[in-house]
Amino acid sequence: MIQYLLKYLETHYPLDKQLLLFSVSVFCVSSGLLPVVIGQRVFMELSGFPHQVGGHFGLLQCTGHVAKPMNARELAFYELMGENLRQFVPDYCGRVRVCATVDDDGDLRLVAEPAVECHPKLKRSGSVRFHLDESGKVQVVTDRLPNNYWAAECQSKVVHKLLEGSYSWFILLNNIVATFSRPCVLDLKIGTRQHGDDASESKRHRQLRKCRESTSATLGVRMVGMQLYESRTKSYTFVDKQEGRRIDAAQFRSHLQKFVRTCGIGRAARLRHR
C-alpha cells in the first residue's frame, strides 16, 4: 500500500511536502480495508462494489460505504433533502476524492480522502480488485463472488476514467447490504418519464422509447437489474437491464414474487422492519 501512496505523493505534492512520509503508519479496521495515515492525512483504500446490478457508472466501496461518481444534481438532492424523506434513502456521508495508481505488475490501487468510518462494514462478501493488462484494458479480479458481468463492465469503465485524470469526486452512501454476506439485490426504475427537462432531443426520444417498450408504460416501473442467491444451489442468478426491458407485466410480477420468496422469511422480515 505504501508504494502506491509514494507514487501518489510524488505526482501531486512538491518535494518538501513528501517529508510527511517519515511519519507513515498503518492500522486495520473492521472493514478489512486499510486506512493509511501519512502525516495528518488519512486515506481509505477502495475496491469494486460486488453487488451492483444496474446503473451506468461503476460503484466502489470502502469501509461500510458505497462510493458513487458524483454529479451536481445528485449531490444537491442528498444535501438539500428534507428530514421527512431521509428515512427512505441510504445515509449520505459526504464526498471524497479518489485517485487510481498502478504498479509495475499492472495491479491497480484506489485510494480516497478524507477517510470516513461512520458506517463500519460488518460482513465480508468477497472482494473486487482491478488489474491493467498489457493492452491497457482494466480487468476485474473477483474473489468468491457471483459472476456479475454488469458490475465488472461498469466498474472497469470508472477505473479507466480515474486513470485518465488524477482526481475524481465521489459521493459516499451508507452500504445498506453491508450486514449481509450473500445479499439479494433488486434495482427498480420508478416512473413513466425518465428524462430530464434539459435532455437533448435524441436522449428524450431514446428514453421515451424505452418506457413505451417496457413495463414503465404499463406499470409505471421496470426492472433494471436483480441478483438472487439460491441457497439450494449455493449460486447466484441474475436479471440484467436488457431482460428487464423485455419482460411484460406478468413476468415482472413473477420476478418480484421470486425475489421476495428467495430472500427467505428472515430477510423478508428485515426488509419489512426497514
Could you explain the architecture of this structure?
Keywords: Kinase, Membrane, Transferase, Transmembrane, Transmembrane helix. The protein has 274 residues and is α+β, with helices and mostly antiparallel strands. The chain folds into two domains: 173 residues, no CATH class; 89 residues, D-amino Acid Aminotransferase, Chain A, domain 1, CATH 3.30.470.160. It is built from eight helices and 13 strands. A six-stranded antiparallel β-barrel has the order 3-4-5-10-6-7. A three-stranded antiparallel β-sheet has the order 11-12-13. The N terminus is likely disordered.
Number of domains: 2
Q: Largest sheet, order of strands side by side?
A: 3-4-5-10-6-7
The span between the termini is 37 Å
| Computed structural class | alpha+beta
Helicity level: 25-40%
Q: Return the average pLDDT rounded to an integer.
A: 80
Q: Can you tell me the residue ranges where pLDDT is under 50 for at least 5 consecutive residues?
A: 1-6, 12-34
Overall 3D geometry? globular
